[in-house]
Amino acid sequence: MYLCRAEINIKPWKRLLNDLKEGNKRMGWMTRESYTYWKGNPSVALIRQELMKCNVSDNQDWNARVYAQVATSITRPYVPYTPMIGSEK
Fold it and tell me: Which residues cross the membrane (predicted)?
């Protein structure tokens, strides 16, 4: 069975590009604080669970902002197309 999930909260490219341009006008790249940003489902793989340990805590800040986001949409199983052979007429 093949499950296909679309990425969530991703804007169409033209809207995203406009938002990026507007953000660049408000604050230049050299004046920004550098952070690594990741958002995803940590239960998919062990390495992702390890990644969650890099998030900011009271004792350590690795400049990583890590968010657990689990898709809540309904997924449909992949059903392969089986072409009909011949005619049933």
Answer: none
Q: Which pLDDT value is given to residue 18?
A: 94
Nearest to 44 by CA among 35, 53, 52: 52
The rounded distance, in Å, linking the Cα atoms of 17 and 23 is 10
Q: Which two tokens stand for residue 6?
A: 């679309």
User: Averaged in consecutive runs of 10 residues, what is the pLDDT profile of the chain (89 residues)?
Assistant: 59 90 88 86 90 87 86 58 55
- What CA–CA distance (Å, rounded) separates 33 from 27? 11
Assigned token pair, 34: 């550098």
CA 79/CA 30 separation, integer angstroms: 50
